[in-house]
Amino acid sequence: MKKKEIIKTLEKYNLNKDDYIILSTGSLVLRGIKEEAHDIDLAVSNDLMEHLLTHYDCELEVSLDDFDVYILNDELNFSIHYYDVPFDIIDGYNIQTLDSVIELKKSLNRSKDIEDLKLIDNYLKLGNINALVLAYLGDAVYEIYIRNYLINKGINKVNDLQKEAVKYVSAKAQSNFLEKMLNDDFLTIEEISIIKRARNHKSHGTKSADIITYKRSTGLEALIGYLSFKGFNGRIKEIMDYIVGD
């Protein structure tokens, strides 16, 4: 499940947000650290536990000394365990704090937890990377995608490729694409925060673009660079397909 799918799933059950905390991998997806989760782990209140067991056909996954873990429709894993973990509130949801997730995954130390810990480490490193460096990376990724797209369209002359590419790679074009995505609510809060980081970075316009257009263009490139650094190639494809109209 990607972020939108997790939120859609939780909304489907119409659960009181104050009665559960999103744990582990699900919390990483909602933070934008990981691209997707197989299911959603929840720590729930006693009241919500009773509600779920009463109103839904839940399967007992494991019974431990102090608590039971249940599965609902292969989507939700829930128990009263960890209901006292510290949490942040993101997009209105209670989400296990990053420090707590790190502690949990270190204690479990499974291969998938080790991989998640690497993702968290990269995420923390990203916070220290200059936004213009991300844009530098994103510019290359963006242009390679556009070149592949145009060649696959059957354009086989370099001059024609260069003329057609301007419709996508110019600062004005990128600025317009970004504005459209923002207006269509296509981007997540995490992605918008990266764009703002790049736009707020001290920079100057160019001869071919005013400062506002240039900053928007840089914001889009920084987003692509950020996603590339995280290995979110699926999300890059979604954004680029949106841009080229596929």
Q: How would you describe this protein?
A:
The structure is a single chain. The protein has 246 residues and is of the alpha+beta class. The protein contains 11 helices and 7 strands. The protein has helices at residues 3-13, 24-31, 46-55, 98-108, 111-126, 131-152, 158-169, 171-183, 189-199, 211-230, 233-244, and strands at residues 20-22, 40-44, 59-63, 68-72, 76-79, 87-90, 93-96. The strands form 2 sheets. A 5-stranded mixed β-sheet has the order 1-2-5-4-3. Strands 6-7 form a two-stranded antiparallel sheet. Strand 6 (87-90) and strand 7 (93-96) form a beta hairpin. Helix 2 crosses helix 4, helix 6 crosses helix 7 (158-169) and helix 8 packs across helix 10. The longest helix has 22 residues, at 131-152. The model has no long low-confidence stretch (mean pLDDT 90).
The level-1 CATH class of the largest domain: Alpha Beta
**First-last Cα distance:** 22 Å
SSE ordering: HEHEHEEEEEHHHHHHHH
Assign the CATH architecture of the largest domain.
2-Layer Sandwich
Helix content: 55-70%
